[in-house]
Amino acid sequence: MTNHWIDIGNSDCIMIIGSNAAENHPISFKYVTKAMENGAKLISADPRFTRTSSKADIYARFRPGTDIPFIGGMIRYAIHNNRVNEDYVKEYTNAPMLVDAGFKKPGDSGQDGVFSGLSGTYDKSTWQYATYKVNVAADGDPPDYEKRYVEVTGQDLSYTNKLDYALSELESVDGGTITRHDDELNADVTFAGCRPVWAHAKEHFDRYDLTTVLDATGSDEAAYVAACDEYTKTGQVGKAGTIMYAMGTTQHTVGTQNIRSYAILQLLLGNMGVAGGGINALRGESNVQGSTDHCLLFHILPGYLKQPGFAGKDNSTLDKYLDCWAPKKLGDAELNWWKRANYKAYIVSLLKDYFGANAVAANSFGYGWLPRLNGLSYGNNASHITIFEEMGAGKIKGLLCMGQNPAVGGPNANDERSALEKLDFLVVADLWETETASFWKRPLANSAAINTEVFLLPAAASYEKEGSITNSGRWIQWRYPAKTPPGDAKHDLGIVYELGKEIKAIHPVNAQNVAINNLNWYASEPTADQICEDINGWNLVSGVKDSLVVNFTKLKSDGTTTSLNWLYCGMYMNDDKTMSTVCHAKRTSMVDGIFNIGLYPSFSWCWPINRRIIYNGASVQTDGNGSHTGQPWDTEHPVIQYNTDNAWNYDGDIPDGVAGPGSERGMFIMKPEGHARIHGMGRADGPLPEHYEPKETPLTANPMGHGTLTSPVIEMYGHTPGDVSEYPCIATTYRVTEHWQAGAMTRNLPWLCELMPNMFCEISETLAASMPGGAVSNKDKVIITTARGEIEAIACVTDRMKPVNDTEVVGLVWHYGYAGIAKGDSANRLTPHWGCANTRIPEYKAFLCKVRKA
Amino acid sequence: MRGMMREKMMLIDTSICMACRGCQVACKDWHQLPAEDTEFEGTYQNPPDMSDKTLTVVKFTEAEGSRPFKYMEWLFFKDQCRHCKGMHGAPCQKACPVRGAIVAEAGGAIVITDACDSTKCNIDCVDACPYNIPKINGGKAKKCDFCFDRIEGSKSPICAKTCPPGAITFGNAGSVQAAANDRLAKVRAEYPNANIYPNGHGHGGCGGETRVIWLLIDDSSAYGIPSGEHGGMGH
Q1: For residue A800, which residues of chain B lie inside 8 Å, CB to CB?
Q2: Has residue B201 got a pLDDT over 60?
Q3: What separation in angstroms does the CA of A711 have from each of A284, A433, B63?
Q4: Which of A89, A498, A684, B220 has the fewest beta carbons closer than 10 A?
């Protein structure tokens, strides 16, 4: 979340899309209800009419996998109905910046649905800001250099000019020759054929007209237009709209671009950084935010530092790593938070903790001992799907599963269960014997032929262990144990400590084991507090931990500080009076901040540096002169407010890198240009979201009218999609309130099994009536088949399901498996083994199936 | 009724309830009741009805939409004992021939005690109840007890405490009645057929016949529940 749970209550319009918050995040509805009691409207956009929809003012159905047309049409509606906050867009986004002359979009002549640069994967060079090269005389003095020209209307190349143009003027910059003065050269430079972001974006989204959108989404026209109208009203100054989303958004081959479409909509409406606004990812477990922050993903290290070798880059030395990932600022006034000095301080402090005294400047603090992604299969990749493909191919020999049950939760579960058979050993740490732990005795398994050695480690439940969790709103809260774990059960920290100790013990000191040999490990089992203090980080004196680092601006790149995660610096502090440490995450003050917008700044602690709403710099008004006034757009719900032009004289939330009024610094300091990106040139599949069908689609042509039906840059892992001629229905998977994820925690609890005892599927009355094998009634059994497998489920025939554009949609809960009290076929035996172009999250939400009466 | 406890009421606002069924589970937890052996019945509603093991059930009903941008409504009704008022006690209480089997407790809770013995009666409470609440098993009648033990300790019933969106308001009768009237006025702007159920509530704060009341967004017939007309019950 850019904002946080309580802040939802400040919203004027809440759009829940790709989420079923009432069912899967019930507590969120405390704040949704509060907003509605204050007059907010609730929009539920979902292929199914859910318990969330039941509370909505507007329910808009759309076909699974058509989020981009749905939101693209809303963006177009905002532009055509003057709902855009022009001042915000001009000064806080990259709308006015020039894009390379070679950039072409899917709708441009000759592109046939793809962006420029496609050759297997995308070469993104034409997606970047316009550059010009200065070649000086043959004597090489001054040397050649390249500059990015980031802003269109100024008279020189820095971002210092009065922005007194209108967005419509940007559109009129039509790709002709633009001449601008370069102060450094004291010469004019010209850009031929370059156009600003805004001109491209407006043209791109103009293709998402109502007819095209409805053709793609199958939405009811009146409900869709009402949703567009209601939501885009939040573009009015002083109003805020929020988007709550979850896995319904992400689990698509275009998952990342779905979120990009939300980001663009929110920027156009001026909804980023303000109270009651933001892009709010509802994380699927209480500590998913924490696990992401601390890098339980293959492509990052803690604090979102890149894993060396990501995307196959040459990161062979620390210098090359920093050259690759730490950007140079674009514009003299910009803060460019990921600049080299910061990036280096964060990675060196991390390495200094990992490798302790063995990390010294001469060995680049042990950088070379970090594992690299270079050379891994399927595009230097180690995502969930890749791991199981490699396991199935016999290349992965051991698997450690903690708090995860891939035999139920993983895609294409038949194949993933078979892949487990190829392992030499499997370690599962869980509360129960899960389907994963018992895969070798699953129905129809030939146990005698399976040689995998399985270890089941009893784990402690959340009530039995101490530590922090980081909620979706980035608030770090402390949990205390209510009881000790039963029997031999251990908390995760204890399990990992013992593993680390043993791994070090059995690896003799030699060149091959150098990383393990040099790893700094605990002499005895650490407490949760000790780990969290190390996450916060220490100032070292003569290599010894001396005092806690106050915040991440104090981290050093010379090996004199440690920190396991720079974002969490400041979570602890030294209390000099008691000579002890104080954990801010344990704070429980119920006193709100000065503006009473629910920040509760002394309740728990929040990264970064207790900032409750990130990008909050954009909550203050532009001054029409390249800076801001320091006064909030929304005077009813101010996030920050400046008393003078002094950057340190303000009330409210901790400002997000904002300088005082009058400063030319951009509001989005994580970007080198300081501006939020409508045009986002870093993604694998395009700088603007374009609609592509799911890999299994009922259509034979893209409704956008071009020849590229599905995303051209998806790793298919050699699998072939099922065809609509054999599988005429769309299937989508989801959770319900009563069960938790892959079910281990709830399908073993009788009270919850009573509520949802069996695997079921939701189908429309029309599908029930026309079912192959005979019409089915409520509670009859049906068989659902895809190109991966076949399962049985009890039919729930309901008016809540409807065909879209004459294609039936089958809803499948994915909680069930062969272990526990409540058993049933796993929906994931049907789901495909491919995923998002950027993240590889599986396409669980849209695939093809057929259904018949059992 | 014990002590000087003031008359309590509960408002269940179905315009806010999202049927997470936290109340159903919390009720089992507080009363330490076992799970029932259920099957998926083609609806989220489960167990299908109240029983000696299940004292409250959220009922799910699909109805036609009455608002411009919603083709349907999914109606949720947390069913349970209404804890009827009445000059001579609740209908079940009046009908019960067994001394001390149905008594009034803290806050006005109508409670079936251990004295209940269905072999000594003709299950008169079941016949008398206009809402089909008491369920008989093993010689005893069972139903919601308003968590009178919690009320005695100045706590709200466990369902009210659990409800995530705050759909259940519990408190002194006058304030709950006033809250119901306030909410009704607001909700009617969106749902013209909204009403306070059972009848006799919500019209000028005249008081009513039950201690548990609901704000419904449509007629009770749309929810498939008894109308709430108290045949022959005293005011």
Answers
A1: 62, 72, 74
A2: no
A3: 26, 39, 40
A4: A498
